[in-house]
Amino acid sequence: MENKLDGNAAGGILQEIFPFEMTTVLATCTGCGTTGAIGALAAYMHGMGTVLRCPSCDTMLIRVAQVKGRYLLDMRGIRVLQISAEA
Ligand SMILES: [Zn+2]
């Protein structure tokens, strides 16, 4: 069972890991080359963790879980992250 949400729903766990606002970071998909804000991705919240998928081609961009006191972060679906240097 999974709940489909948007990437803003993943903002909480991403904020625990990254020292900047991740929902406004731009990510380029390795699957189709689309660039968009992480907050606009399709998010799937599982008991196992959170998966963020490209809204255009459904490639998995980010998978994040918290297991035994560690965050597991799989970002193989992202070609480029664009992070604003102006906080
Ligand atoms: Zn894509």
Q: What do you see in this structure?
A:
The chain has 87 residues and is mainly beta. The chain is 8% helix and 43% strand. The chain has one helix spanning 11-17; strands at residues 3-6, 26-29, 35-37, 42-45, 50-53, 60-67, 70-74, 78-82. β4 and β5 form a beta hairpin. It is globular, with a radius of gyration of 12 Å. It binds zinc ion (ZN).
Strand ordering within the main sheet: 1-4-5-6-7
> Taking all residues together, what is the mean pLDDT?
92
Major sheet: size, sense and barrel closure? 5 strands, antiparallel
List ligands, each type once.
zinc ion
Oligomer: single chain
Find the count of extended strands (DSSP E, 2+ residues).
8
Q: Which properties best describe this structure?
A:
binds zinc ion, 87 residues, 8 strands, globular, mainly beta, five-stranded antiparallel beta sheet, single chain
Provide a compact summary of the structure.
With 87 residues, this protein is mainly beta. Helices cover 8% and strands 43% of the residues. The chain is built from 1 helix and 8 strands; from the N terminus they run E-H-E-E-E-E-E-E-E.
Topology, pairings included?
Layout: E1 3-6, H1 11-17, E2 26-29, E3 35-37, E4 42-45, E5 50-53, E6 60-67, E7 70-74, E8 78-82
Antiparallel strand pairs: 1-4, 2-3, 2-8, 4-5, 5-6, 6-7
Bound molecules: zinc ion.
Zinc ion (ZN) binds next to loops.
